[in-house]
TrEMBL record:
Its EC number is 6.1.1.20. GO terms for cellular component: phenylalanine-tRNA ligase complex. Signal peptide: none annotated. It comes from Cnephaeus nilssonii. The keyword Magnesium applies. One of its GO terms (biological process) is phenylalanyl-tRNA aminoacylation. Residues 302-379 form the B5 domain. SUPFAM superfamilies: Class II aaRS and biotin synthetases, PheT/TilS domain, Putative DNA-binding domain. The lineage of its organism: Eukaryota, Metazoa, Chordata, Craniata, Vertebrata. It is found in: Cytoplasm. This is Phenylalanine--tRNA ligase beta subunit. It comes from the Eukaryota.
Length: 510
């Protein structure tokens, strides 16, 4: 679960009420969140880097809140406050609108060169936005949280935010050879080619984790404005020219990636969270994106859709007895505006652009259960009464695991599938003599057969941990699969024990 850090006093100010730590913990639980830790910037630095590094750090109290991985709308202070306020019925869910600009629409043109590396892009404009230091920090932090979660560490989507007043449209999203891309990157004072930047960022603790995404590609993606100014080289770094600051009033947002759906979701989340600070609240200026086939689309989509769920289904699945009207109120508290229609048992739910996690009826049922309160659901015995008991074989293997751990061995859990080479050639055996069950269409050479012995997995574990302190004392108790006369057969768990000492790159197994 992602963790969001928010300043306690700033949070309470936005909520319009001061809570005790216990009260806020209870509120989080009611809303399906968890207050993970109460700390401060100084305390965090002290734990991670020592007291000397922590000197001068802020003592402001921070709440670390665990958020469900699919609730992208709760990854910043703005979304968290809005969600809690709607949940407590203090405000109504805002309506997000996309509007066309008074003048010429900002245009992003995608060239065909991007097709083999990052073919998709979407864009939007936050017009007349007012940042403060806290709002600006939250804006940057949200982008980072999205990068780490839905964007899968920028592999699927990369976000770029730019000061529109320093740029001139239309913009071009293309791909060029690394040696042909040269610009001044964010927070640098001189220009570098893309090749030079990749070498520089190999030692950067933050950016080095993203280099592999485009490092071995013949072309790198890049975005220019009409004057040839580089906005960004996604997914690595933005240009310094269009860097946003607290004083930025108009923000151009571009999201590039390999997953078109997720790119649209990410753009929707960013603009819905921070359009609150625009002169016209919750209003986003559209941008036009022209694809290589000549088709053009306007973004953000900010699409609302309707879903129908019967009240009796929710009552049955959750285990409650509520009227359709009460269920509609529960769902409305979860940012899902609902009303009873038709025969009086049908509930129409409006899914806003912030709730991309709601895909099926079961998601709606889950939100109804959260709003009702898990602690308020009456416990009931299952209709079938049985007494569970542990299988004797499982009991034996658990006892063996405890004894091996007590003897100083570390348990390994390796893959049940392996390559033919692992169970045959590397063990000096012929594959036909192993009695192995083969995968008919393996996707990778590493998973061709089901293992017939635990030894290869442990040997590979030792090989991958040769730099660890010696001796390595490993064991594994797991199933193997062998082929009988008619089909594959799952054999009872076996135990394999290895104790490794290294001598001149070799090891002995005991």
């Amino acid at each position: 679960m992602p963790t969001v850090s928010v300043k306690r006093d700033l949070l309470f100010q936005a909520l319009g009420r001061t809570y005790t730590d216990e009260e806020f913990d209870e509120l989080c639980f009611e809303f399906g969140l968890e207050l993970d830790e109460i700390t401060s910037e100084k305390e965090i630095i002290s734990k991670e880097q020592g007291n000397e590094k922590a000197e001068g750090a802020s003592d402001v109290i921070l709440y670390k809140i665990d958020v469900p991985a699919n609730r992208y709308d709760l990854l910043c202070l703005e979304g968290l406050v809005r969600g809690l306020q709607v949940f407590k019925e203090r405000i109504k869910a805002p309506v997000y609108k996309r509007v066309m600009p008074n003048g010429e629409i900002q245009k992003l043109i995608i060239t065909e060169e991007t097709a083999k590396i990052r073919p998709y892009a979407v864009a939007a404009v936050l017009r007349n936005i007012k940042f403060t230091k806290d709002r600006y920090d939250s804006f940057i932090e949200l982008q980072e949280k999205l990068h780490q979660n839905i964007c899968r560490k920028r592999a699927l989507v990369a976000i770029g935010t730019h000061d529109l007043d320093t740029l001139s449209g239309p913009f071009t999203y293309t791909a060029k050879r690394p040696s042909d891309i040269k610009f001044k990157p964010l927070n640098k004072t001189k220009e570098y080619t893309a090749c030079e930047l990749m070498n520089i960022y190999k030692t950067d603790n933050h950016l080095k984790h993203y280099l592999h995404i485009i490092e071995n590609k013949p072309l790198y993606p890049v975005i220019y404005d009409s004057n040839g100014v580089v906005l960004s080289m996604p997914p690595i770094i933005n240009g310094n020219h269009s860097k946003i600051t607290v004083n930025t009033r108009n923000v151009f947002i571009e999201c590039t990636g390999t997953d078109f759906t997720k790119a649209k979701i990410v753009l929707d989340i960013i603009v819905t969270m921070f359009s609150e600070y625009c002169e016209n609240q919750f209003t986003v200026e559209a941008a036009e994106v022209v694809f290589p086939n000549g088709k053009s689309y306007t973004f953000p989509e900010l699409a609302y859709r309707k879903e129908m769920v019967r009240a009796e289904l929710i009552n049955k699945k959750v285990g409650i007895r509520e009227t359709p009207e009460n269920i509609a109120k529960l769902l409305t508290r979860m940012f899902l505006k609902s009303e009873v229609i038709g025969d009086g048992n049908q509930i129409e739910i409006e899914i806003p652009p912030t709730r991309a996690d709601v895909m099926h009826a079961c998601d709606i049922v889950e939100d109804a259960a959260i709003a009702y309160g898990y602690n308020n659901i009456q416990m009931a015995l299952p209709k079938t009464y049985t007494i569970a008991n542990q299988f004797p074989l499982n009991k034996l293997t658990e006892l063996l695991r405890h004894d091996m751990a007590a003897a100083g061995f570390t348990e390994a859990l390796t893959f049940a599938l392996c390559s033919q080479e692992d169970i045959a050639d590397k063990l000096g055996l012929d594959i036909s003599a192993t009695n192995a069950v083969h995968i008919s269409n393996p996707k990778t050479a590493e998973f061709q057969v089901a293992r017939t012995t635990l030894l290869p997995g442990l040997l590979k574990t030792i090989a991958a941990n040769r730099k660890m302190p010696l001796p390595l004392k490993l064991f594994e108790i797991s199933d193997i699969v062998v082929k009988d006369s008619s089909r594959g057969k799952n054999e009872p768990p076996l135990i394999c024990i290895l104790k490794a000492f290294f001598y001149y790159e070799n090891f002995n197994c005991v």
